[in-house]
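Standup notes
- DV: blocked on the single-chain target, sequence here:
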Amino acid sequence: MSAEAKTVQPVGPAVDTARAAMPGPVVLEGRFGTIEKLNPVKHMTDLWNALGHDDSVWTYLFYGPFQDAGAFLNFLGKIADLQDQAYYAILDKNGRSQGWASLMRMDPANRVIEVGSIAYGPAMQRTPLATEAQYLLMRYAFETLGYRRYEWKCDALNAPSRRAADRLGFIFEGLFRQHMIVKGRSRDTTWFSIIDSEWPRVKQAFELWLDDKNFDGGRQRRSLAEIRNSL
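- DV (later): unblocked, structure below
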């Protein structure tokens, strides 16, 4: 082969190699509530009331249920201090903490981040606040921190989480068989993602769904998926 000959092989498109930022102690304001950095002292009582009395909240998580409020407070102190995972309390319009979510598995060099460890109290589940919280964290990751891939993973047996990922606009990417051992049980993991090129459409659907005009007496006029599919 001559010195001038070149092997033509497919490669991905060139991208900006700037690093994304790490999540910080922000306050994200919405119509239905607020997201703020988890503070064990401030949020403990409300979170225990919201999450501490329903064992089903913890079935698919790596932790919980908790024996008592003291054990719960001790756990909150540990996760609030994590450096590689940012936990955020989700507060309703009255300022009461109803659950939490985490930005985790951060890879600033490749601009990849995951939302996970989601715990919603029964009163928050299937409410506009539950949807808005995901929108606020997603917007923060894409528009403020500069990530280009936003991931959602869950136990393959967790049907509500899989449905939530699909409803929120995540794309199913596959099943990782025997991916983990969680609480002494084998776990297959389903993977979903939204990438930056998809974010504008996903964002528009969220904002149309969250608009006052989409609600009649607290009931949605059009579903989030219906709005997104119409764009």
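- Follow-up: The first helix runs from residue 40 to 51.
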